Amino acid sequence: MPELTWKHHTLIQALLSRGPLKAEEFHEIFEGVTGRNPGAHEQLFNEYLLKINKELSYIQFELRGCRNQYDGKVFYGVVNNVADEQSKIGTHYTVPQIAFYKGIIEAIVQDSAGQGSISNIDALNIRLDNQVPTVTESQVQDGASVAVPTAFKNFSLSQKEKTLDEFVKDRWLCFTPDGKIGLGVRSFLDLRSWFHHNDVAVCDVCNEAAVKAELCPNEGCAVRIHKYCLIKKFSQRKAEKVCPGCNIAWPYSPARGRGIRVSRRVEWVEMEKSGKKVMNMKRFRSTLLYQCSSQSPLSSVQVDHLEAVCDFEVRICFYHFEMLHIFLRRRMGPTAVCCSPNHPIVTLG
């Protein structure tokens, strides 16, 4: 098997040294070392990841992508494939801190409302002695008992507060927009196998753990779907707005607000001067979302609308750069940023 080149090592080192990276950041590094845009050279990008993972598999590591379930953004990171959370979180934390983390993630994934979060008070009230291995019936008959470690008993409230801050800083946990405690990007990346082994409910669309998800309106149905998966599924032209499990109507309305309206009419044109062909929707979607968000954060409504309209299988036409600039400014205000004149520009209607 050929050895990894310096380009592969650079990608691995970037993820190891900087932690999980947003897809846009990782793509930028990839383009910097290879000279190829991963959006336009998706096969090359996948080949790099495959080759890296073949080598990392020998030490039970993997370069993996995941979505942050609270905002739908994609991240990449190098993860440990061993299933237990102790090996995931590493030796940086003490045994009581790891037990505290385990108690938090168990409480979060058991949330029946699908919010994927618990209050700060609930997190601080988690009892570490619940993480001590239980005694089996045969052991009880033999008079055996399990003592709670002294370190668990002495783990104070102030230590819990400090540990929570460390978990958030290290991105094992996060603060949700409503001020609660949720899973961080590193947990979504590293605990995929843990979710599976602990029978965490999965999204009916992508089959990943549905920690933060929308629930079927039928209380007797267990179907969960991530919000971003729901938008993608129901934004398709002929998609029925019903639960895939019980077939009951699923309340859904496309996000409204200032957004981009994309014409579904298929046209093929060429730019008069450059002769460049129309670019595909995937590249437009990633370029526009990245450039808009890199200048000024889009509102959740704007992002939802962009995600929805960009999932249609359409092609869009070239047009004059200044006209697109004016259109975006009118539709989205100061957050809109036009694509570079060197990139294919699109007709929006």
Automatic annotation (TrEMBL):
<dbReference type="GO" id="GO:0030915">
    <property type="term" value="C:Smc5-Smc6 complex"/>
</dbReference>
<keyword id="KW-0234">DNA repair</keyword>
<dbReference type="InterPro" id="IPR014857">
    <property type="entry name" value="Nse1_RING_C4HC3-type"/>
</dbReference>
<keyword id="KW-0863">Zinc-finger</keyword>
<feature type="domain" description="Non-structural maintenance of chromosomes element 1 RING C4HC3-type">
    <location>
        <begin position="203"/>
        <end position="246"/>
    </location>
</feature>
<dbReference type="InterPro" id="IPR011513">
    <property type="entry name" value="Nse1"/>
</dbReference>
<protein>
    <recommendedName>
        <fullName>Non-structural maintenance of chromosomes element 1 homolog</fullName>
        <ecNumber>2.3.2.27</ecNumber>
    </recommendedName>
</protein>
<dbReference type="Pfam" id="PF07574">
    <property type="entry name" value="SMC_Nse1"/>
</dbReference>
<dbReference type="GO" id="GO:0005634">
    <property type="term" value="C:nucleus"/>
</dbReference>
<keyword id="KW-0233">DNA recombination</keyword>
<dbReference type="InterPro" id="IPR036388">
    <property type="entry name" value="WH-like_DNA-bd_sf"/>
</dbReference>
<dbReference type="GO" id="GO:0000724">
    <property type="term" value="P:double-strand break repair via homologous recombination"/>
</dbReference>
<keyword id="KW-0833">Ubl conjugation pathway</keyword>
<dbReference type="GO" id="GO:0008270">
    <property type="term" value="F:zinc ion binding"/>
</dbReference>
<keyword id="KW-0808">Transferase</keyword>
<dbReference type="InterPro" id="IPR013083">
    <property type="entry name" value="Znf_RING/FYVE/PHD"/>
</dbReference>
<comment type="subunit">
    <text>Component of the Smc5-Smc6 complex.</text>
</comment>
<comment type="similarity">
    <text>Belongs to the NSE1 family.</text>
</comment>
<dbReference type="Pfam" id="PF08746">
    <property type="entry name" value="zf-RING-like"/>
</dbReference>
<keyword id="KW-0539">Nucleus</keyword>
<dbReference type="GO" id="GO:0061630">
    <property type="term" value="F:ubiquitin protein ligase activity"/>
</dbReference>
<keyword id="KW-0479">Metal-binding</keyword>
<keyword id="KW-0862">Zinc</keyword>
<keyword id="KW-0227">DNA damage</keyword>
